[in-house]
Amino acid sequence: MLIARLTKKKKQFDRAGDMPADLARNLHEWFRVELTYTSNALEGNTLTRRETAMVVEKGITVGGKTMVEHLEATNHAQAFDWIDEKSQKSLKYFTEDDLLSLHKIILSGIDNHNAGFYRNVPVRLSGSRTVLPNPRKVPDLMSGFYKWLQSKKDIHPVDLAAEAHFRLVTIHPFIDGNGRTARLLMNFILMCHGYPPAIIRKSERGKYLDALEKAQTGGSGVDYQQLIYQAVDRSLDIYLEAMVGDGDFVAEPDDSLLRIGQLAKQTDVNVSTIRFWLTSGLLEVSETTASGYQLFSTSMVLRVEQIKTLKEQRYTIQEIKNKLTP
């Protein structure tokens, strides 16, 4: 039933015609940041959504984050631009060299030795029962993968994208970057067929990994399939709502951000004091939800501790503000 709903929404999207250039550009930039944030977060990158946007859009270095995390963000954004350009052509023109080039972009500057090359060593998934193929089998498995990908003519585009992602992560052809490459390939296939890219949310990480493992170890693939359907469904809604003027590109709540009560609890400061420091310009809000909740980056925990120390030294609010300003 869900695949029929996706098809119906896709037809609505097609009937709407070309969207204004400014809107198309805004959607592209939103998905570029959101996909970069979520895909990297699924792999353990600790950059928040706001920090990811700062790195990707403004080239700003975020204090307390590793160089690898910064490179993961810039590389993924570049890779998204790459698949966006490639998707203007038919999927039949996508080759093995293209996939290796995509992987090379993802690992550029992180692991140049293995970027764009299949693995030649065994790998295991930590905490998973899934047994990955012997590295000697990888070239033949990937050859079969490309033949399968180019031979599928009678499968729904969403099913093709989901299956391609599943097959690639199951072969696990690279030492690192398999998940990011597979999700980008999935989105490339969707975009080739006129669908928007699908976002697997950070909050869905457990469900996503469990569904993959269940299918990889001989169980049903329904849970995995439904998760991908839902991701595509959300993206179609974003595009359709944007085209009628209702689009706010709403992202999932960033669970690395803190509400004011959580910030107060972690720092042993009452909420009214946090609010006072906020209005005084000593603290910064990272995001405000649609319901009006103010969310704080975890970096504000350290900021509060700095303020407390300076208060104990009897500095005034203005003096503290001056000391905290770079």
Q: Can you give a write-up of this model?
A:
This protein is mainly alpha-helical and 326 residues long. It folds into two domains: 242 residues, Fido-like domain (Fic-like fold, Orthogonal Bundle), CATH 1.10.3290.10; 67 residues, Multidrug-efflux Transporter Regulator, Chain: A, Domain 2 (Orthogonal Bundle), CATH 1.10.1660.10. The protein has a three-stranded antiparallel beta sheet with strand order 1-3-2. It is globular and about 75 Å long. The protein starts with a helix and ends with a helix. 33% of the residues are buried. The mean pLDDT is 90.
Layout of secondary structure:
Elements: H1 2-15, H2 21-42, H3 49-58, H4 67-86, H5 96-107, H6 138-151, H7 157-171, H8 178-192, H9 205-216, H10 222-243, E1 258-259, H11 260-267, H12 271-279, E2 287-288, E3 294-296, H13 299-312, H14 317-324
Antiparallel strand pairs: 1-3, 2-3
